[in-house]
Amino acid sequence: MSVTQAAVIPAAAHLELVAIEVARLAAAFVLDHADRATALRTKSTPTDVVTETDLASESLIRRELQARCPGSTIVGEEYDDMVGSNEIGWIVDPIDGTVNFLYGLPVVSVSIAASLGGQIVAGAVADTRSGQVYSARLGGGARLGDNELSVSNPTGLSTALIGTGFAYDAEIRREQAHVLTQLLPTCRDIRCMGSAALNLCFVAAGLLDGYFERDIKLYDYAAGALIAAEAGAVVHPRNDQTDLTWAATPPIASGLAKLIGA
Asked: CA-to-CA distance for 252 and 49, rounded, in angstroms?
């Protein structure tokens, strides 16, 4: 059964509210455990850590989503996919910024995106430290709480503040360092804050003019990419041809794309 356009609009509004509610609950849970963070194991590399709180947060999110939308499919960072019985899907990052969380740094988020028939239609990203929630729905704009979001309007790349992040793989980091040598002399400055989801939301809010990162996963960017796009950003998530995800306010999009090899 396909999802019709007429069904998407009211459904997306409902799914946005669910994502906001559950992201807020999970963010409060993560913050409550911030002073007890310890590494449980690693994944792709010795620097790619998982904490007990990552697992507990995802378990909480899965329970709450199933309670509100029974039969949903859930794809998360820490557990196997849960295949549902309807058209609703969820893409979950229980802690985006786990290394920050482990070290006690404040840039940590919870990201939840909703899909209908495979299309992402809503999402929420909760800043665990402040409790603020960024959200959006397809065709319905982006918000921080009740305030509508809109991207910045810099005069050019030379006055643009750009966010980025670094892969866990050492070889990719070497290539990323080369890109930085091309970009840094050209823009206002670069920030590396450790949460892809929040970086995309910062673009949406005009706190960054652009953002790019290689080798991030769907659960890292699914909600944030929709939020940035609905706020007016040019957004290019990774695809089969490239592992680069980037977003930028329109005045600098083409210039940034050239410099980062997009």
From this structure: 34
